[in-house]
Recover the amino acids of this structure.
């Protein structure tokens, strides 16, 4: 199989980990990089992520990237409150026949429940170019679908499923994303992530998608938001955290069928490890983690612990590992269960020990 020619768009905390993975990847050839920040334009892709030179120079020239006629665009733009801009970024590539994998276009996680104004232009572009697009990541993404549904292959009667993301974002460098959750705002602040259509497009649609996969018709979806603060200022990678402002958020989205909860989807986010000490914590007090609980016959629970860097890496690698499958798929928007099982083949080859 020839190596797929790939362009990376976005070199922030998530895009950079994807870029690192694609450099010298055994199945993919990096042919282009789009950078937004002025200080990154004109620099070698390897330099941007602390690796050796690649000969691929970062640019903001979209026409030049389109002219590469790559097999796939790995898109890692910032989607929060920039949905229309992100859609406009990828549409020309899809129309030109370049497939797209992404962790950003959240309305495509469960496209049948995504916001039409962002889903329909993507679908039309796929029809025009005969191309495919897949949105993955961690959450929404692999943890809410791939991991959950692999577990359910061993389930019997299912009474309820619960997926929780638990993160300490003290070391996360981007305030744009941290601020979207309401951190550093007054405790009564109504963050758009929870009270606007951003949360609906990202997370309520995920709950509806899980219900579809389970064959469950939901009566309603409820949502609760809890905020907590610290009594002192604190330092974080994204800036200065202020006392008596939001330092922890617990958001619970619940899918109800036949009058009882069936699906729980929870985000527990902190910007300091001491905030909300009685709330859920990641396994082994890791910076990040995921918990999946299935109640029924049998019942079981799993937990995964991650560093923030590894969490960002998985977010990028889930769609990247899908590139070959996406390029081989029929044109259109691919949902979480529309692809065959895919996984990394970037195995590190270690020489066998010498006998004697």
């Amino acid at each position: 199989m020839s190596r797929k020619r790939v362009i990376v768009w976005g070199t922030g905390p998530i895009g950079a980990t994807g870029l690192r993975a694609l450099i010298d990847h055994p199945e993919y050839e990096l042919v282009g990089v789009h950078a937004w920040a002025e200080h990154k334009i004109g620099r070698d892709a390897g330099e941007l992520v602390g690796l050796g030179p690649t000969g691929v120079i970062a640019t903001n020239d979209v026409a030049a990237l389109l002219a590469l006629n790559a097999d796939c665009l790995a898109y890692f733009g910032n989607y929060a409150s920039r949905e229309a801009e992100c859609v406009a970024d990828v549409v020309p590539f899809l129309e030109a026949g370049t497939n797209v994998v992404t962790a950003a276009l959240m309305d495509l996680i469960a496209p049948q429940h995504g916001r039409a104004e962002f889903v329909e232009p993507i679908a039309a572009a796929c029809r025009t170019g005969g191309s495919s697009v897949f949105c993955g990541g961690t959450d929404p993404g692999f943890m809410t679908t791939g991991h959950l549904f692999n577990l359910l292959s061993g389930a019997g009667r299912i009474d309820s499923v619960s997926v929780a993301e638990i993160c300490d974002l003290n070391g996360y460098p981007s305030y744009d994303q941290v601020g979207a959750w309401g951190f550093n705002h007054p405790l009564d602040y109504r963050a758009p992530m929870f009270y606007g259509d951003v949360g609906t497009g990202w997370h309520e649609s995920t709950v509806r998608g899980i219900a579809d996969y389970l064959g469950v018709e939901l009566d309603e979806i409820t949502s609760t938001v809890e905020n907590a603060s610290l009594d002192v200022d604190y330092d974080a990678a994204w800036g200065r955290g202020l006392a008596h402002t939001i330092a922890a958020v617990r958001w619970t989205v619940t899918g109800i069928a036949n009058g009882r909860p069936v699906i729980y989807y929870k985000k527990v986010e902190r910007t300091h490890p001491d905030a909300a000490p009685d709330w859920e914590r990641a396994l082994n007090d890791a910076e990040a983690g995921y918990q999946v609980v299935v109640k029924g016959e049998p019942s079981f629970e799993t937990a995964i612990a991650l560093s923030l860097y590894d969490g960002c890496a998985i977010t990028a690698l889930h769609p990247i590992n899908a590139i070959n499958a996406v390029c081989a798929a029929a044109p259109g928007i691919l949902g979480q269960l529309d692809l065959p099982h895919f996984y990394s083949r970037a195995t590190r080859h270690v020489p066998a020990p010498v006998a004697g």
The CA atoms of residues 209 and 215 lie 10 Å apart. The chain has a mean pLDDT of 92. Residues 197-214 form the longest helix (18 residues). The longest strand covers residues 157-168.
